[in-house]
């Protein structure tokens, strides 16, 4: 018996030692980190390349237009013959109008739906609704754009007197609808990860379900919720197709939401699809606008990151 | 339900008046369980449970894992309803009203019956906000009264001296034993009538366990306590009465001395002498 056992062991050990696999394994083990590293470095280098191009071309732009005119000018008239004006404020105003309307639409509905899904809905409902939300998040934004232009705007024109065909209100609402699933889904994740023991602790003190949701779950998940809102804002700022289709192309520095506007992204589309020649000031202006946009979204993303770290309620 | 703070105090005073040693028969019954049956789906979790819990006593519930002791405890404040497939029959009279009656609002019951859990579960808030949480949801907003409640509750849970200088720090910065006493203080803050404890020391080290046990002895002057424990020595040390559960049935329920010295049922004797469980 004993010898048989030893035989078996030694033979398996023998097979392992003899196996060619060992050599290939060693090569793979050595090559793998290098391969994985190069994959990682390619995506990082690409990002740096994009940012570098952006900065480089933006410098070209500022050789032609003074930086104070750009930052503080209240007129954006790049196509006006001899005296083009490049004040970014009207474009920023357009972007912020749309973003603000989107946030006003999406945040209350998003958080309310998240509370419903995480605290009230049955397991079955949650399992059905969550994938639908993810599908909604995957709808191409050009579809939302048509929806804004051909459905929401006509409906709104019935309600809001003096609403132009192109305006800030309609794309604002639709961008809000677009970021709604993102806020709902991420906030729901944050709330669901609050441990049940916390809910039980509050319920055992005689709290109602709603009090538990508002006074225990919501504060405990606040960092995740705020981060989801900030990320959604960042998406709203960068949103292009909806505002290009339904927002118009008239940059104005005011607070009017019923009139035609132009956002930073819509301007870039307008110039890119037009016939601005290479090397002209207009050509470089899209990089300066792009760079401004980049700064906005970068700040938002950093803010989301900071908030989710700094304000995390540890449990 | 909004509680009047002053009214609460008088109730406690009345409770204190009854703590003088009195004849056993004269003790007030807090909970009277009659023919309680409970099912988790098809599983018959509690079978014909009949049990009376007395005022200002510590009642221990012991038994092997899965015997229904925690389920019974959670039925006393209807936390068991958080599991959607639970069904019950029979009656649990709390102060002479059937809590299983659908008309009995669960929030009202849980305001009168506090609970301490197995794993300390403070809220991720400051120590102060943890204690003030209960009074606040029941409508007490006055800062001075809240300050008083917080100090009184923390003193009541024997943790005031350890935390009085850091009331604004997060409760999660405390040790496990301290967190559990914070949870007890949180429960005391609404001055309940009964405190249910679900294996409150099973996640704690021996020294913290000792502190909680001493605290339980102290608290029974003002409160009626039901404690589930898997630790038989603990039941023997701190309880006045002990119920032994097995497979969802109450095998034996008597004064703790009787259960541990002269149990009537062979199965009780086997369990407490460590032959199974």
TrEMBL record, chain B:
UniProt key word Transferase: no
Segments forming domain ABC transporter: 31-272
Keyword Transport: yes
InterPro entries linked to this entry: AAA+_ATPase (IPR003593), ABC_transporter-like_ATP-bd (IPR003439), ABC_transporter-like_CS (IPR017871), P-loop_NTPase (IPR027417), PstB-like (IPR005670)
Keywords: ATP-binding, Nucleotide-binding, Transport
SUPFAM superfamilies named in the record: P-loop containing nucleoside triphosphate hydrolases
Domain of life, per lineage: Bacteria
Any single Pfam family the record assigns to this protein: ABC_tran
One Gene Ontology molecular-function label: ATP binding
NCBIfam families named in the record: 3a0107s01c2
Name of the protein in question: Phosphate ABC transporter ATP-binding protein PstB
Species lineage: Bacteria, Bacillati, Bacillota, Bacilli, Bacillales
